[in-house]
Automatic annotation (TrEMBL):
Region named Disordered: 24-51
Signal peptide per UniProt: 1-18
PROSITE patterns per record: FE_B12_PBP (PS50983), PROKAR_LIPOPROTEIN (PS51257)
Fe/B12 periplasmic-binding domain span: 56-316
Superkingdom of origin organism: Bacteria
Lipid bilayer topology: Lipid-anchor
Biased composition range(s): Basic and acidic residues: 25-49
Family: Belongs to the bacterial solute-binding protein 8 family.
UniProt xrefs under Pfam families: Peripla_BP_2 (PF01497)
Protein keywords: Lipoprotein, Palmitate, Signal, Transport
Protein known as: ABC transporter
Subcellular location: Cell membrane
Source organism: Bacillus swezeyi
């Protein structure tokens, strides 16, 4: 009887050890599974391991915000800079989305309180990348103005990869490719040359190929009225006389004042007697572009599609 009791005690001990070992193995497996649920994303500031399908996202890049919106991921957004939010994204002014400071002055304390799984930034915040990544995995998504479509597609595909939306991204990009092809054909058929300017109060800056608005020439096929504009972030300072001298057939205007919430004055600045001498004015081909798309966001699925439509309409 004593031997039998000892046998059962030994058996129970073996079963307990086995169960513990099984739990430990399960725990290790779960831990390994969690480790595997990340995706490696190469971006402007680094290469980051980002959680797959994050539930809480803080977004400083308005182009990526509109991409998330287009992909049906608005419920993942928990915070964004609400100041100067483009009008086409006005739904994100709702109180269910937290304000996390300005584009150039992030509120790191508020961001930390939100405990995001992912933070998406862009050029305006790049210098503070190290501060962001202390809070959560951060990706610095920017456009390469000299390779606009390539970088736009790579950025969008990264979002698709993170959220498991690869097929939706593929379909959306294919539609934009069709739009771009259509505008290129129209630009070729119409002929003529275009000039892109930005007004800021009473100042005028011109932008050419390879600039922040260079996709009008480089991607959409509008021939430049001036091939010697230096590509820069702030453009080349010009005058009404310059516009008259270059005599563009198409003039595309972006109003910075309107973009940053001030009273827009682009039409008043541009349509003076000097500029009225141009082919663009005479033929009704001065197009005032939406500053929300062009100045504040850009590089998003909605913004790129709408920007393409605006140039198409401007050429007609």
């Amino acid at each position: 009887m004593k031997k039998l009791s000892l046998f059962f005690m030994a058996l129970i001990t073996v079963l307990v050890i086995a169960a513990c070992g099984s739990k430990s193995a399960d725990s290790d497996a779960k831990s390994d599974s969690k480790k595997e649920e990340t995706v490696s994303i190469k971006h402007k500031s680094d290469t980051s391991e980002v959680p797959k399908n994050p539930k809480k996202v803080v977004v400083f890049n308005f182009g990526m915000l509109d991409t998330l919106d287009e992909l049906g991921l608005s419920d993942r957004v928990v915070g964004l800079p609400k100041q100067n939010l483009p009008s086409y994204l006005k739904q994100y002014k709702d109180s269910k989305y937290e304000s996390v400071g300005g584009l150039k002055e992030p509120d790191f304390e508020k961001i930390a309180e939100l405990e995001p799984d992912l933070i998406i930034i862009e050029g305006r915040q790049s210098e503070q990348y190290d501060e962001f990544k202390k809070i959560a995995p951060t990706i610095d998504i920017q456009l390469d103005q000299k390779n606009y479509m390539e970088s736009f597609k790579e950025n969008t595909e990264s979002i698709g990869k993170i959220f498991g939306k690869e097929d939706a991204v593929k379909d959306a990009l294919a539609k934009i490719d069709d739009q771009v092809e259509k505008v290129n054909k129209l630009a070729k058929d119409k002929g003529g040359k275009g000039l892109v300017v930005l007004t800021s109060d009473k100042q005028i800056s011109a932008y050419g190929s390879g600039s922040r608005f260079g996709l009008i020439h480089d991607v959409l096929g509008v021939a430049p009225a001036d091939q010697n504009i230096e590509a820069s972030l702030h453009g080349q300072s010009v005058s009404s006389e310059y516009i008259s001298e270059k005599n563009p057939d198409y003039l595309f205007v972006i109003d910075r004042s309107a973009a940053i919430g001030e009273k827009g004055s682009a039409k008043e600045v541009i349509e003076n007697d000097i500029v009225k001498s141009t082919n663009a004015y005479k033929n009704g081909h001065i197009t005032y572009l939406d500053p929300g798309y062009w100045y504040l966001s850009g590089g998003g699925l909605e913004s790129v599609s709408e920007m393409t439509k605006e140039i198409e309409n401007g050429l007609k």
